[in-house]
Predict the structure.
Amino acid sequence: MSIDFAQTPVEDLYGESCFNDATMKARLPKNIYKALKVVQAGEAELTLEIAEVVASAMKDWAIEKGATHYTHWFQPLTGLTAEKHDSFISPSDDGTVIMEFSGKELIQGEPDASSFPNGGIRATFEARGYTAWDINSPAFLKQDASGLTLCIPTGFISYTGEALDKKVPLLRSMEALNKQAMRVLKALGNTTSKRVTSLVGPEQEYFLVDKELFMQRPDLKLTGRACFGTMSAKGQEMDDHYFGAIKERVADFMRELNYELWRLGISAKTQHNEVAPNQFEIAPIYSTSNVASDSNQLVMEMLKKVADRHDLVCLIHEKPFAGVNGNGKHNNWSMGTDDGINLLSPGENPQENAQFMVMLSAIIKAVDVYAPLLKMSASSVSNDHRLGANEAPPAIISIFLGTQLKEVMDCLAAGKPVPSMGGEKIELGASHLPKLPKDNTDRNRTSPFAFTGNRFEFRMVGSSQSLAGPNVVINTGVADILGEFADRLEKASDVNAEIQKIVVDTYKAHDRIVFNGNGYSDEWVVEAEKRGLPNLKNTVVSVPELISDASVALFGKHGVFTKEELESRYEVYLEEYCMRLNIEAGVTTEMAERLIFPAVSAYASELATSVADQKALGLKVPAQEAQVKALSEGMEGLLGAVKELKAANAKALAIEEDALKAASSFLNDVIPAMAKVREFGDGLEKISDKLTWPFPSYEDLLFTM
Ligand code: ADP
Ligand code: MG
């Protein structure tokens, strides 16, 4: 499958490694293709007969392209993807083989999956887990040195049906949203739409660093972030990187990345330099949540793979470098119908307006009521460096509506006439709602949940996270409130009056979540507290929200998570938190003791020898003497801090009985101890010989390209 990118038109290679709708249409018998579409639309069950035909067509297609293996591709709770390859071969008695792939093999797999984190949901004696085909996410071909593998996107469940992955709950939440949103649409008089789907367009941020430099940094290798390093003389203060001209080496990387993604049928669209030096962004065009989530996993994988070919390393950690911006993954979210209506578009006529106002109200209420869960969904040890750290959106959830829309809502709630928008006439249509401004031009980069004209942008999501988690919460939360509204609308004798009432009641009760101001300001923290908005500052206080009564009730009601599934995730996430900090503490210790200390000590003794030599000659060398003293004090401080870090880490590790207690100890004891080691390490970097410093500096990492 090697391709001369320059010679191949994009239209020819787009989707060539993807068993997409066009390929299916071309390769499946008409009746099977039609039947499959019905199954994909959720209107019929998949039969083995259909699966047999699809499997056979998929296999032929894959083998023609050169594939030898297939795999059920799934997303365990590690947040990464997993695959176990099986070849298509089926040996015959005569010593030859034929290539086979059955319907059953397509629908279901049984990887030995006992080693994936499951939070105690399965004892190892019943370690069987099943993977099940997600028929709405296209299969694709993946190339690596082992050859070409047909990858079938799947969900991963236990023997007893519990979700063991990120995808199954996402599919369940999409179903919940479909059900409740359809009830509302029907109650509003929509007779044409058959399905509502959640849509996501993620903006993925990342850093690129030179591979040779990266390889000299144990911290980057093992944790994805620099555990040491003083800020370079220049950072991002000149704003000269953001949207700046893309350097040749990066442009070359981006070109290849785009082609690779296009081949997979991933619609890479936007790319640009981000705020921090050597930081970039890529955004595909939005798609259904499950496909967007799968694609994003592939985007992250491709970023790393293509970077490697260019002797670069792609860092997707949320905060690789303290001192400059971190990486986010902005989750642009909306709902659309099968007949092409964007339910978050204010629209042109009163009917669309009413629909928009109801959807908007549901989102406002859902975000207010389920704010702790939303925050939880974006929490991780690495994202803690961003959220609330005065750079990314704060840890406090609020909604930005833009000036005009907020004014409309404020007036409606207060029973005041709504002022005319930009000279446009206000129409009181069937629904008695005002005509809405057509585009929402103002932007707010400090809001965690911002309306941007026809979608909401959830900006808290971490760059390395799976999109599934946050979208499970958004979908289910919104489904829940839409369900409430549907109950009211279905019962109402006057639907228009009820719409009006829903919009006004909801806004009055939940307008505390709406905030158009500067989310990074200290005043907002005070104001938010006055409003009673939660401020869950870190992962350790966020994860318990998963097993709160509200969470168990919400997810249980909509069939997204059982209590056991939530409890298992709670365990897994806390464990992950501890393990990652344990690794960071280990790297910090190692670098301090075995890289920084030896280098500084060599430099200091060289200086000391020179001081002694010069003194013996009767010369005065106060500057060198002072420097030796400073280095020696720094080293003493460093080793002292390492000792404390080791003790703190050992203490946290020893807490085995309670995951939350252990995580709290990592948060309260290990993180500060690590910061102290870094302070001494960075202090020593500032007064040491640059030429013999044992690993590349910020300047090297951020300004080499
Ligand atoms: P920004 O100006 O916010 O940086 P980008 O162009 O970088 O915007 O990314 C916006 C993302 O939002 C893209 O992935 C885009 O496809 C997606 N998007 C656009 N409309 C919708 C929608 N209705 N629902 C979900 N995502 C959308
Ligand atoms: Mg963008």
